[in-house]
Amino acid sequence: MSLPQKVDRSMEVPVPTSTPDRGLTWRESARAARTVLAAEHGRRARAAVRPRTSRGLVRDRAPLAVGLYAASRDGRLIRQGHDGFALLEPPLSRTPAPRWRGLAHAVVDRVDRNWGAVVLGTPPTLALLTATALALIPGTGLVALVPVLFTMVHVAVLLTAPLVLALLPRRAPGPDATRLSLLSGTHWTMTLFHQGNDQRVDELFDRVRERLRHLLTTELTATGRQQGTAADNVRVTESLVCLHDGVTTTRAQDLITARHPGTTWGDGADFSVARFDQHPDDAPRVPNPPLAFVRLYLWANVIVVLGLALLVSGQERAACLDRPCANAPTEYWDALIWTAYQLVWRQPPGTEAVSGFAAVIGWLLSPLLPLLLLVSFVAYRRHRRYLDHIRRTNGRTPMSTRLLVVTVTPEERDAVIDSFDRYTDNESTPDFRRGRVPTVRLGEIADTEVFLIQVPTAGGVGASTVSQVAADVIRDLKPHCAIITGICYGLKPVEQELGDVLVSAVIRDLDHAKLTDVDGRVVRQDRSERVAPSPVLHTAAIAAQRQWQRQSGLRVRFGEILSWNKLVNSELVVTDLRERYPDAIGADMEGAAFYAVTRWAGVESILIKSICDWADGTKDDSHHVVAAANAAGFVLHLVRVGAITVGHRC
């Protein structure tokens, strides 16, 4: 299970004037770090905040107390009393420009964000400075070699460990790991969430949302001022990636799951995505990380060679005090050339080192070039594999479309579940924690995450009908589009066959009418409304019709669907319907109410049902299962071929 946090899909917020809380002191930062470590999943949360460098032994970020201190100064730490806080990280591809908050903050921030380089470079630098100082003191001799040996061992261990680990057999990263790396490169991430008081979990998450709005709008306002523009209201369209491992207690995970349902969330997932309103034409952005490790390795070697050249020149001068050394590299430039030649196992022309220190250095430098070539080769292969994976997944949108499928009868529900489970080879089960209405997550197919509900009561009017239940689910789940599917009755038995799939081009509501007295009898004046479902889903269904008909052997018909909150089984009534609505191809009981709910919520929707009878007095249940399966099959086909995708359909 991973952590769902849902941010409103559409919001117009004024540019905030409030500022984040004051920054933490060092004592408060240390106390907060101890509080996290003492929590149920504290060590796992610390690892989420401080991930290891790629295939390395070093953490990517500074110790937790340092990171919390730096984040509090940037406004990325959301505080709630003494024991509640959350941590936000900006996207790697567009880190906000740092603002000057003093020298101490600038140093701490650099240390936090470059902890791997600090661990790699600080000890060798101090050791080389110590060796240089010792080399300048007469009589130290080979004592100055000890810091040099420490430097080389330290750098060799940290830089060759990734190479050794890369050669070991390992499990391939799952799809969640890949998606997480892509999403964290382009979206804000909540890496830590701690609140020991269950009653305040919801409040803390609300503060996270407000702080993210503040950070985004503040950055946008500052950019606008630099360009001579101003914004009174800012529409937030960001998506927040929430790490499952960053939540410190199981209870907090469960509470957020129950109170903020409807996010990208699945059992066993490493993260969830809390969406603001996403623009339809937002294209996925994929960070293309450079070969930073190879550059770091090269610079480390350059620093080592430069430092060793200084030590060699000093030792050579000391060795030549009591004997002539015409060709010894006593000057720094000569020593640098001599040191470079040792990398390729050669001696420079006209130069010959005479000290034992230089001999040891030459022996230690001999494996550097093979290691450099090996590290470059492994890094190149890993980079190529990464780029190949990006190319394979480039057509996928990290943010999948959320589709809600609505059914009424058990046959309709089972038909949809069976169709999707056979395709995904999974067993879907109801989720009773996602809001008040149980939902079934059918999986993610072609970048479409599909959810199913069953409305308990047929028709459009009543406490447990589609008008109430679907509205409740849409409010919690926030789907991008919705489809009502199942069974209906046909109105053209000469042209149609049982099992034909009907797709609504128009829905006519028959429940609206005016009743008057005329010559002693009641006259019904039809006031029905004709509404058109989603034109984009309608167009997508038309485009997918031919392929599915050829594969299934079934027919798909488009036209007017009547919606009447009455169960019809009368030849006289059906004949009257055919005469009054000659263009209608079928009728059901929920279509108009479903359209009203989705239209009010701003969700693209369409009706897809299959003919189970003719409602002419001979109605029975013998074709319910087959008809429901046919309609479910066409819904699955639309999802499978990518007819429902963010930015293209819904």
TrEMBL record:
GO cellular component assignments: cytosol
Entry keyword Nucleotide-binding: no
Keywords from the UniProt entry: Membrane, Transmembrane, Transmembrane helix
Superkingdom assignment: Bacteria
Gene Ontology MF terms in the entry: adenosylhomocysteine nucleosidase activity; methylthioadenosine nucleosidase activity
InterPro entries given in the database record: Nucleoside_phosphorylase_d, Nucleoside_phosphorylase_sf
Residues annotated as domain Nucleoside phosphorylase: 403-639
GO BP, one annotated term: L-methionine salvage from S-adenosylmethionine
Compositionally biased spans, kind Basic and acidic residues: 1-11
TM spans (from-to): 115-137, 143-168, 296-314, 353-380
Xref: Pfam families: PNP_UDP_1 (PF01048)
UniProt keyword annotation of ATP-binding present: no
Start and end residues of each stretch annotated as Disordered: 1-23
PANTHER family named in the record: 5'-METHYLTHIOADENOSINE/S-ADENOSYLHOMOCYSTEINE NUCLEOSIDASE, 5'-METHYLTHIOADENOSINE_S-ADENOSYLHOMOCYSTEINE NUCLEOSIDASE
Name of the protein in its database record: Nucleoside phosphorylase domain-containing protein
Source organism per UniProt: Saccharothrix espanaensis (strain ATCC 51144 / DSM 44229 / JCM 9112 / NBRC 15066 / NRRL 15764)
